[in-house]
Amino acid sequence: MLLDQFSIRRADRRHFILLSVAAATAAIAASRGTEASAASAPTILVVGDSLSAEYGLRRGSGWVALLEQKLAEQHVPAQVVNASISGETTSGGRSRLAALLAKHRPGVVVIELGGNDALRGLPLSMTQDNLQAMVQSAQQAGARVLLVGMQVPPNYGGAYTKAFSEVFGQVAKTSHAALVPFLLKGVADSPDAPNLFQADRIHPKEEAHPQMLANVWPELRRLLR
């Protein structure tokens, strides 16, 4: 009888050990699965100026915040880091990019800079060189790049307006980056344009940002595939 009880207790211990091992194995597998899922979700790094930094807007209403919502709605496994700063120039973005790439290790980099270069009258050659360097740095870090272009009003003069607009296309073509030619398409050239901008006539109102996202989304979606 004692022998039988000893055998039962030993069998119970063996069963308990097997269950514990199985539970631990399942927990490790689940943890690794979660880590793998997180690792497979690319980070989208947005490096822009006030047009991407929600200048004059409610927090969460700019096109970058709307992008986060769209990714969630369409079940696209990606996270967004908005590193945009109001007033940023291409020189400022270029100086910050290396640290951002090292910190966030993005799969996609969206570069939305250049407008402030024009407002400050900086040489187009400088703008182009800075954008080219940023694209190349991001690509060398293993990221795909989406360059978001800008246009300036006609009062800058026809020659300058045309040359400025072409900078983005030239950089994209040279570096094989994706391109959105004009972030404010459907906004600045809209018949209702005066009502889509804030009082400064530079920064779009909240209601214009869905259109800005609509301009960016098709090219960005292709990069995420």
Please explain how this structure is put together.
α2 packs across α8 (209-224), α3 packs parallel to α5 and α5 packs parallel to α6. Helices cover 56% and strands 10% of the residues. With 225 residues, it is of the alpha/beta class. A 5-stranded parallel beta sheet has the order 2-1-3-4-5, sandwiched between helices. The model is unreliable at 21-38 (pLDDT under 50). The chain folds into 2 domains: 1-40; 41-224, SGNH hydrolase (Rossmann fold, 3-Layer(aba) Sandwich), CATH 3.40.50.1110.
Low-confidence spans: 21-38
Number of domains: 2
Instruction: Write the CATH homologous superfamily of the largest domain.
Output: SGNH hydrolase
Largest sheet: 5 strands, parallel
Helix and strand composition category: alpha/beta
Overall mean confidence score, pLDDT: 88
Number of helices: 8
CATH architecture of the largest domain: 3-Layer(aba) Sandwich
The N- to C-terminal Cα distance equals 68 Å
Described by its quaternary structure, the protein is single chain
Instruction: Give the overall silhouette.
Output: globular
Radius of gyration: 25 Å
Please report the total strand number as a whole number: 5
Strand order of the largest sheet: 2-1-3-4-5
What is the percentage of strand-forming residues? Answer: 5-15%
What is the third-level CATH name, the topology of the largest domain?
Rossmann fold
CATH class of the largest domain: Alpha Beta
- The helix content is 55-70%
Helix-strand sequence? HEHEHEHHEHEHH
